[in-house]
Amino acid sequence: MQELDPKILGKIKKCLALSASDNPNEAATAMRQAHALMEKHGVTAEGIIMGDIGEAKIKSRTMARNKPEQWEAYLASTVGKAFGCSMMVSSYVPTATARIKTINDGSFIFVGLKGQAQVAAYTADVLVRRCKAARGAWIKENLGEITALRGGKKRATRLGNEFALGWVHRIAQLVHNFARPPEIERAIEQYIEAHTNIDGELPIRSTRSSDRDAAVASMAGMKAAAAEHLHRPVNGAAPQQQLGTSN
Predict the structure, then answer these.
(1) Of 34, 38, 7, nearest to 19 (Cα)?
(2) What predicted TM-score, i.e. pTM, was given to this entire model?
(3) What is the pLDDT of residue 239?
(4) CA–CA distance, 69 with 89 (Å, rounded to integer)
(5) Which of these, 152, 157, 175, 170, lies nearest to 219 by C-alpha position?
(6) What is the pLDDT of residues 81-134, one digit of tens each?
(7) What is the DSSP string of the chain?
(8) How far apart are CA 108 and CA 62, in angstroms?
(9) Are 187 and 239 contacting, i.e. CB atoms less than 8 angstroms apart?
(10) Where are the domains of the chain?
(11) C-alpha pair distances (Å), 139 with each of 152, 153, 154, 166
(12) Around 63, how many Cα atoms within 13 Å sit in the side-chain half-sphere?
């Protein structure tokens, strides 16, 4: 790898990047060219890609009791997959002797090709803020009266989360998971293994309801997200160009 001509290395990386194109023909051609160059020069795609794997992080906006809300974790995971990244949740884990048992602070970490991880983090942060704002506005408009009643705040929270889950479900319908070539898959897995200490999956907070009002809230969330759209970057497009609201 160290002796490989930088121009050849750059050409292989460019082909590998194009192999993730949404255009099937362009992707297949680029992958064939990448494999031909790697075979000719005796290098592996995994070895080349490892240097391009990185991470980007955003703060959770719903973290409580060391767990994010279900809708926020679902949204972050959906965005990560859309940009070819693995998503992990990071939160404070107290020791046995610590006085603080929980802390409302945590992050979502996106691991993938460096550029894609950065765009995934940016996109997730924007969408989480939009979903949270839409959720708050819907609760205020539709559930303002019940919050003053006994148990009303708890019910409003549950229905607000159903609204948010519906909102996220609508976003998930707009995107297809980014197809990661096997070598990128392995490189990401090795990066995570080398940089993290994972002991099981972090649970999320779930306050789902099963009554009729919950279904209404979920449908309202899906309707509210109908104007949102999400596009993956094409050949290094700037992150701010990937989000928008339809008129």
Answers:
(1) 34
(2) 0.72
(3) 45
(4) 12
(5) 170
(6) 888 899 999 876 666 665 665 567 889 999 998 888 999 999 999 999 999 999
(7) -TTS-HHHHHHHHHHHHHTT-SSHHHHHHHHHHHHHHHHHHT--HHHHHHTTEEEEEEE-SS-BTTB-BHHHHHHHHHHHHHTT-EEEEEE----TT-S----S-EEEEEEEEHHHHHHHHHHHHHHHHHHHHHHHHHHHHHSTTGGGSTTHHHHHHHHHHHHHHHHHHHHHHH-------HHHHHHHHHHHHHH----SPPP-B-----SHHHHHHHHHHHHHGGGEEE---SSS--GGGSEEE--
(8) 11
(9) no
(10) 1-43, 55-245
(11) 11, 10, 12, 14
(12) 19
Matching residue, tokens 């705040």:
153
- CB atoms near residue 13 (< 10 Å): 17
pLDDT digits (tens, 9 = 90+) for 35-68: 899 888 888 777 777 778 899 999 999 988 788 9
Q: What is the pLDDT of residue 43?
A: 83
Task: Give the pLDDT score at 194.
Answer: 83
Going by C-beta distance under 8 Å and a sequence separation of 6 or more, which residues neighbour residue 47? 1
